[in-house]
Amino acid sequence: MARLLVQLKLRLLFNALRASTGAKVGFILSTIFAALVAGGVFYLLSTLGGGIAAADLTTAIFCAFGLAWLIGPLVVFGLDSTLDPATLALYPLRSRPLAVGLLAASATGAWPAATLIGLLGATIGLARGALGVFIALLAVLLQVLFCITLARFVTTALAGMLRSRRGKDFAALLIIPIFALYEGFIQIVPKLAGEGALTAASFGGVDLWLRWTPPGLAVHAIRDASTGHPGTALLRLALLAGIIVVLGVAWILSLRRAMVTTDTSTQSAVRGSALPFARYGLRGTVAARFWLYQRREPFALIYWGITTVIMVVVAIRAVLTPDWFGGLLASAAAGGAFVGYFHANAIGMSGPGFGLEAAALNGRRAMRAWFAGQNIAVGAIAVPLVTAVSFGLAAIAKHPMDGFLATAVGLAGIGAGLALANLFTVALAYPVEKRGGTPMPRPVSGHNGEAFAVWFLTILGAGVAATPVILAAVLTRTDPAAIWMPVLVLVGAAYGLALTWAGVRGAANVAEQKLPELAQIAIQSAL
Amino acid sequence: MGEPAIAVTGLRKSFGPKEAVAGIDLEIAAGSLAGLVGPNGAGKTTSLSMMTGLLRPDGGRVLINGLDMWADPPAAKAVIGVVPAEARLFERLSGEELLEYAGRLRGMVASEARSRAKQLLHVLDLAEDAKRLVADYSTGMRKKAMLGCALIHNPSALFLDEPLEGVDPVSADVIRRLLTRYVGSGSTVLFSSHVMELVEQVCDHVSIIDKGRIVATGTTEQVRDGKTLQQAFIDLVGTRAHDEEVLSWLGSSSS
């Protein structure tokens, strides 16, 4: 059974190279990234030395791998067929050999190998003496086994939930904190390390409680063996092995249950009985639909989360320096541009549901109402969001009044972004699909060119269109602020509204001519 | 026969070198419940998409109650309802919100759309699930929700693509009765299906399409020509026989 499932896993991995270009590139990039992580972590751990702070940092890294193995499989649940027991429930398999097989399949692939190779750096860095190295080898193997068993237990226990609509929504939303952590890591950690504010000593004391977690037990077993306490080291490893056995038993029990339990489906109802704003004509009706989607569609929530993270990341390095003003304005412009980008393929992203609208919408006026309704719903979230983040960043920079200037730029950026979004929705529409491993819709194979053009032109175009207001903000800054700042906000809002109005009219004119073609693109989307 | 409710002449569509619909002619009288049957890939869905304004034809004409679908799409689309083969619904709206939205898209006032949505959900046996998201609906429930969206503005012609596929017998009976009542009031239905028994039972007019061409059309009795519709269909379209001897092991319990 183990051999069969390992072969299945290898075949699935191999077949990724025969999939669409996008999937192939994703697989190759993931493998390269895994190799970089393996090499980087191995180098880092092997150069730490054997001090107290080194043990703290090693514990933090071991725990980070544990956390990654806990969260990662939840996000890529649909990607790895071997993670879902329902795919094997049709066959006459006993749970114990199945568990061994699934464990072996889990240990196959680039990421398990990256975990093992990376953590083996501890055998050079933290371990001292032959006994230390021997215990380190055991500890690393147990840590990898712990990571895999934990991931298996969690995905099996939650498999029913993850197959349900609500479970998929929850797993999708995990991408927001992961994105925030990633951006924070690549933006802040190198800066702090470069300034000498982040060293191995900075981790001193973090394992006061982490040492009692399973990864902490593995690390401190290595340290104990290396400092002449082999008995304590073995006791720690025995405790870790015991935890793995308990997790394994819990996993087998949940596997037995999962094999004979039907999927859970979400039975909850929505509140309210009517479409909001529907009494305000076709524009209000379309706005109501987009408004509900902003709240209920996970990828809409993800887009808002990512927009917020991008605004913060663009400014965070600058707001604590004398260059804070530039960071503030860049953040607001970026917020507006990304609001536009995330809505720049609205018909493709509406998916087959747009067929319902295309069968009913008639003429230019109806299409104007459709685009205006979308802009009203998006603007109702974008304007307060960009305003709040702008004022928040201005407050962190200790110049709260300059939030007005950033807001003015943000309003112009949102207007420009939405205008471009409307135009590209009809000019460069492309079908999208949801794939396993990513909660966000991706272009259907063969449409990556349109997707790239939409991204590039929307971000660039929104930035260029917001330039007059950016210049006005820079010039206004030297004037008595209390007088000019509110005026500039009004100017930014009026400019943004004018751009959006033009975008709606231009997009509606084109949409009227090619509504059947746009409907076919939307119908090709698989959401 | 007076002016047909649905008149199609010379309708054709190619995708690259493949000719999906090769110039079809069709006339459906008002008050008729017509079936369009054919094997997989025969051109049923492509034809219905062109008749309903969702796919631009390469040539030909489609008249709905005398309104030219491709010369004046707004006028023609206003008098039809469409139920596509695959769900084209907004999954993150509740059933009630979806039907109200469909009504509002058709220009109905909010109160009227809301009232009709409730009535349709009741008749379609979806009242108890009216507040659940469409994403949580079963296949049959989605079909019924789509039918509700197509009927809410009381169209004079209804186009349905495989309306009963994946629908349980109870729901199928609900849909069948609703369509019969709808046609009884003088409205027209054209639907595609693979299920010959269903077409034979409910349709008064049948057209058989194969390889993008109409190979037979007329009243159900005319097309059957004394046989079952299934047999008439196979006689016209031909069987796809394969050498089944290679499966000689099938049915053996030895391995």
Describe this structure in words.
The complex is a heterodimer of chains A (527) and B (255). With 527 residues, chain A is an all-alpha fold. Chain A has 2 domains: 2-259, no CATH class; 281-524, no CATH class. Chain A has 23 helices and 2 strands. Chain A has a two-stranded antiparallel sheet with strand order 1-2. In chain A, strand 1 (432-433) and strand 2 (442-443) form a beta hairpin. In chain A, helix 16 (324-342) packs antiparallel against helix 19 (363-396) and helix 20 (403-427) runs parallel beside helix 22 (481-513). By secondary structure, chain B is α/β, with parallel strands linked by helices. Chain B has a domain at 1-76 and 198-239: Rossmann fold (3-Layer(aba) Sandwich), CATH 3.40.50.300. Helices cover 35% and strands 24% of the residues of chain B. Chain B has 9 helices and 10 strands. Chain B has helices at residues 44-51, 73-77, 95-105, 110-123, 139-151, 169-184, 196-202, 220-224, 229-237, and strands at residues 6-15, 18-28, 33-37, 59-64, 67-68, 80-83, 157-161, 188-193, 205-210, 213-219. In chain B, the strands form 2 sheets. Chain B has a 6-stranded mixed beta sheet, with helices on both faces. In chain B, strands 2-1-4-5 form a 4-stranded antiparallel beta sheet. In chain B, helix 3 packs across helix 4 (110-123). Chain B is globular. The mean pLDDT of chain B is 88. At the A-B interface, helix 14, helix 18 and helix 23 of A face helix 2, helix 3 and helix 4 of B.
Q: Could you give the count of β-strands of chain A?
A: 2
Query: Shape of chain A, please?
Result: globular
Number of extended strands of chain B: 10
Helix content of chain B: 25-40%
Q: Strand-and-helix sequence of chain B, N→C?
A: EEEHEEHEHHHEHEHEEHH
Radius of gyration of chain A: 27 Å
Could you list the spans of chain B in which at least 5 consecutive residues all have pLDDT below 50?
none
Which two chains form the greatest contact, residue counts included? A-B, 41 and 39 residues
Strand order of the largest sheet of chain B: 6-7-8-3-9-10
The N- and C-terminal alpha carbons of chain B lie at a distance of 63 Å
Structural class of chain B: alpha/beta
N- to C-terminal distance of chain A: 35 Å
